[in-house]
Structure to design on (226 residues):
């Protein structure tokens, strides 16, 4: 079945540092890939998505590129801010699959 | 404003008691979902519904039940058969039932056992 493996946290960075959170997946067919963010005590919000190979999703300075050859969708940001502190989830959804399959989440803490 | 509303925000369950978590959306979405979130385990799908009066089990449906009598409502009942109910429960909805449509999430309900 479908699965998502993402980098275990927690990740602690200083403000303006470079961020990478690794995500790899296993799926049949051609899934859509997503990054969701969860702030403390809240639900999840979509951060970015990519629907086919070589697509790059981007939002709020975050980027991720759909790499079919390495089955990866790593999240990057060039300069993190304290307000980026949250839990980040990588997820996939198969073309004929109703459900979204999530990774275990990575807690990011950014210190001033 | 359109969105998904979950209530209550915090809920306590006594031994042997059934409790119901509410989820309402005014986004006119066909599909709705319930996820359970445990620390370090990510989100796991409990039940989902593609359309009114229809729903399917997810990966961890045992000890839970749902109904979908109205398009905008998808309540989740945690029954006494669920032996480890303490978790954060998230409801979500989406426009389309498949493909690249994103999910919209509610703000969650934290369920604890007394």
């Amino acid at each position: 079945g479908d699965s998502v493996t993402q980098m275990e946290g927690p990740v602690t960075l200083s403000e303006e540092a470079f961020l990478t959170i690794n995500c790899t997946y296993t799926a049949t067919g051609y899934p859509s890939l997503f990054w969701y963010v969860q702030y403390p005590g809240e639900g999840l919000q979509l951060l970015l998505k990519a629907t086919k190979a070589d697509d790059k999703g981007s939002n709020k300075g975050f980027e991720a590129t759909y790499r079919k050859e390495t089955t990866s969708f790593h999240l990057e940001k060039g300069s993190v801010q304290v307000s980026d502190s949250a839990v980040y989830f990588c997820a996939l959804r198969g073309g004929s699959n109703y459900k979204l399959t999530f990774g275990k989440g990575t807690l990011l803490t950014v210190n001033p | 404003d359109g969105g998904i509303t979950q209530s209550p925000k915090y809920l306590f369950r006594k031994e042997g008691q059934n409790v119901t978590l509410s989820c309402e959306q005014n986004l006119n979405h066909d599909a709705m979902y319930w996820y359970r979130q445990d620390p370090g385990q990510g989100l796991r799908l409990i039940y989902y519904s593609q359309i009114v009066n229809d729903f399917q089990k997810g990966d961890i449906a045992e000890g839970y039940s749902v109904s979908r009598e109205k398009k905008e409502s998808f309540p989740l009942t945690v029954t006494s058969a669920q032996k480890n109910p303490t978790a954060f429960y998230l409801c979500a909805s989406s426009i389309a039932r498949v493909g690249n449509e994103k999910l919209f999430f509610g703000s969650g309900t934290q369920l604890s056992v007394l």
Chain A touches chain B at residues 32, 34, 36, 41-46, 49, 51, 89, 93, 95-100, 102-105 (CB under 8 Å). The first strand of chain A starts at residue 3 and ends at 6. The radius of gyration of chain A is 13 Å. Chain A has a mean pLDDT of 92.
